């Protein structure tokens, strides 16, 4: 806007300069006839008149242009301010909805131990599936006030301290990297039975043509998945829609993505479950590598607070949101049996 005003003023100044030079050109007087002098006087008079006319034209043009640009600038600022206010209100509403969703998720009293998962056609309770055992320890707490009795607190300590739950597709290209890394994590942390990986295949999203039995055979022969007792694979289940398995509906709703979204968007989303509480404590997007979860698993196993999420955690979630709109391996209505 400022550039346009500057260009207009420059044009006017050049025009004024040209008019001024035309009207003030020095004419020779010694060799000129009276007739020529009269002609020069006439030309000078015309030049002065033209100069005055151009000056008034320039002044009115600058004033008009400045006023128009000022009005346009004022309207532009008002428009920008209105859009900014609208965007701020929308962001506040979305944030309020997100916070409400997280509050509801935190208020859910259920844990993973309230569910069973299908293995070879049979529903197996979650604790038996991972070989969970609890050791009870009585701790005497001394009374803080004289005259009161000491209290005894029973603490439960879980054998399996961390569980990683993953929805998989064995023919997804990233399976070639994810599954070996999941096996490596199970080998590293599951030697003493303190860590387990549960993989759940599904027909939803990108098509999974094989039966549950054939998927087990393929994962065992191609990767060795299932040989280690810490690596578990369920039967195929529905993860979304009205026919979703209760466990998956619960874990998606109680451990939401940073955007507040509950439902999974793609293959290989991962949920880290605390073995002591049975609650999911962190969720990871499709392309977040299993090796990047090692620090979180280690913290859970040592009874420590989870460290801050990796620097690429939110970035991968943003990428996941973009891929959910176009990626072949997304979960979307119209792709296979999304709903029942």
UniProtKB/TrEMBL annotation:
InterPro entries: Glutathione_peroxidase, Thioredoxin-like_sf. GO terms for molecular function: peroxidase activity. The keyword Signal applies. GO terms for biological process: response to oxidative stress. Gene3D superfamilies: Glutaredoxin (3.40.30.10). Belongs to the glutathione peroxidase family. Keywords: Oxidoreductase, Peroxidase, Signal. It comes from Chaetoceros tenuissimus. This is Uncharacterized protein. It comes from the Eukaryota. The keyword Oxidoreductase applies. Residues 1-19 form the signal peptide.
């Amino acid at each position: 806007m400022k550039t346009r005003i500057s260009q207009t003023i420059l044009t006017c100044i050049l025009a004024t300069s040209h008019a001024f030079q035309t009207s003030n050109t020095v004419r020779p007087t010694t060799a000129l006839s009276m007739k020529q002098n009269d002609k020069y006087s006439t030309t000078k008079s015309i030049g002065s008149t033209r100069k005055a006319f151009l000056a008034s034209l320039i002044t009115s043009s600058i004033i008009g242009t400045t006023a128009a640009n000022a009005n346009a600038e004022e309207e532009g600022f008002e428009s920008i301010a209105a859009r900014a206010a609208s965007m701020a209100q929308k962001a506040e509403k979305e944030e309020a909805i997100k916070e409400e969703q997280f509050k509801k998720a935190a208020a859910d009293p259920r844990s993973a131990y309230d569910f069973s998962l299908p293995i070879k056609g049979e529903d197996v309770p979650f604790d038996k599936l991972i070989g969970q055992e609890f050791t009870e320890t009585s701790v005497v707490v001394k009374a803080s006030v004289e005259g009161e009795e000491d209290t005894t607190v029973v603490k439960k300590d879980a054998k399996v301290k961390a569980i990683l739950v993953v929805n998989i597709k064995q023919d997804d290209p990233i399976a070639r990297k994810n599954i070996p890394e999941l096996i490596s994590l199970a080998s590293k942390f599951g030697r003493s039975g303190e860590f387990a990986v549960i993989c759940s295949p599904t027909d939803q999203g990108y098509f999974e043509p094989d039966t549950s039995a054939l998927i087990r055979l393929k994962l065992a022969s191609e990767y060795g998945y299932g040989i280690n007792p810490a690596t578990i694979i369920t039967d195929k289940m529905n993860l979304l829609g009205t026919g979703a398995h209760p466990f998956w509906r619960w874990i998606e709703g109680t451990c939401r993505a940073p955007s507040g979204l509950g439902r999974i968007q793609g293959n290989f989303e991962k949920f880290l479950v605390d073995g002591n509480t049975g609650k999911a404590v962190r969720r990871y997007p499709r392309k977040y590598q299993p090796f990047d979860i090692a620090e979180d698993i280690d913290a859970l196993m040592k009874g420590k607070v989870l460290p801050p999420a990796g620097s690429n955690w939110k970035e991968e979630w943003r990428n996941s949101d973009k891929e959910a709109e176009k990626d072949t391996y997304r979960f979307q209505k119209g792709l296979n049996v999304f709903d029942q």
